[in-house]
C-alpha cells in the first residue's frame, strides 16, 4: 500500500529506521526533525523538513503548515515528547485528510512519565522496580539504587549509586528525578504492535550491547514468562499501535518475580530491525493498522536467535550549509 508518510524524529535511531523501512515498502517519505543536522534528513529520496521542537510554541502552526503544504497521507512520530502535541492536533490533521494512530492520552502519560508507569504497573500487579520520588527517599529500598529523570529517554541522566545519601545528591543534579531499586539480570526489549481491538503481538530481543540507551546489538529470543509480563504491562497502560517495552529477566529470582518491567515507549524502538530480520512484518502490519485495515498477527511471528548489529553509516558529504 504505497502511501505518503511524514515521519518525525528522524535524527534518532527509531525515526531513522522507520523512515528507511517505509521507503523499502514503497512509501513516499517526508522526513522531519528539529535538528537540521539530523541524519534521517539525508536519506536518499526523502523530502527533508526542519520543524521546531515539540516544546516550542511555534510547533503547532509549523506542523499544520507543513502538512497543509506537503499533504502526507499520515503522520508517524518517533519522538515521544511530541505525542501530547499531536494528540492536540489530531482533529486539525484529520480535517486535512491526514491519518494518525495515537494512543489515548492516559497511555501516553503512562509511557512518558516513568513514575506514572511504575504506579500504573504496581496498581495492576505487574512486576516493576520499587520506585520513590525524592521526597520519599527515606523509604527507598536497600542496596544499589538508580536515579533517573522521570521524563528522560536514551539513558540520559541515569546514574547508579550505593546509598540513599548518594541518591539524595544525584536527585539535586537530575531534572524531575525518581529513584528505583537496581535490577540485576538480562535486559530485554519487546517490540509490540497492539491493534485497535486490543490484540497484541510481542517480539522479544535481548539488549546485548547498549550505547547511549540504544541497543546496538540485539538478539531475538522467546520466553513465555517475559511475553506474558509484557502483555500484562500493555494491558495495564492501555496502549495501542506500535510501541516498545523494556525489562529484565533475573538470573536468580530467589523468590521474587523472574521478569521485571522497567519502562515503555509509545513509539517504535530503536532496535526494531532485529524483529524484522527475524521474520516479523512489523512495519508492514503497522501500516495496515494505521490505515484501519486488519492487522494480520500471523505475520508478526519471528525466529529466535537472530542477532542484529547496528553501526555508524556515512550517508553523504556535502559543501555549504545544511538544507
Describe the model.
The protein is α+β, with helices and mostly antiparallel strands. The protein has three domains: 4-100, Rossmann fold (3-Layer(aba) Sandwich); 130-181, 2-Layer Sandwich (Dna Ligase, domain 1); 186-309, D-amino Acid Aminotransferase, Chain A, domain 1, CATH 3.30.470.20. The protein has nine helices and 14 strands. It has helices spanning 13-24, 59-70, 83-95, 105-112, 114-123, 164-173, 224-237, 273-277, 282-290, and strands spanning 4-8, 28-33, 47-50, 74-77, 131-132, 145-149, 159-161, 177-181, 186-194, 200-211, 214-221, 241-249, 259-265, 307-309. A six-stranded antiparallel beta sheet has the order 13-12-9-10-11-14. A hairpin with a 5-residue loop joins strand 9 and strand 10. Helix 2 (59-70) packs across helix 3 and helix 4 (105-112) packs across helix 5. The longest helix has 14 residues, at 224-237. The radius of gyration is 20 Å and the shape is globular. The protein starts with a strand and ends in a 14-residue tail after the last strand.
Q: Any key phrases for this structure?
A:
9 helices; Rossmann fold; D-amino Acid Aminotransferase, Chain A, domain 1; alpha+beta; 3 domains; six-stranded antiparallel sheet; 323 residues; Dna Ligase, domain 1
Topology:
Elements (H helix, E strand, L loop, with lengths): L3 E5 L4 H12 L3 E6 L13 E4 L8 H12 L3 E4 L5 H13 L9 H8 L1 H10 L7 E2 L12 E5 L9 E3 L2 H10 L3 E5 L4 E9 L5 E12 L2 E8 L2 H14 L3 E9 L9 E7 L7 H5 L4 H9 L16 E3 L14
Parallel strand pairs: 1-2, 1-4, 2-3
Antiparallel strand pairs: 5-8, 6-7, 6-8, 9-10, 9-12, 10-11, 11-14, 12-13
Helix pairs in contact: 2-3, 4-5
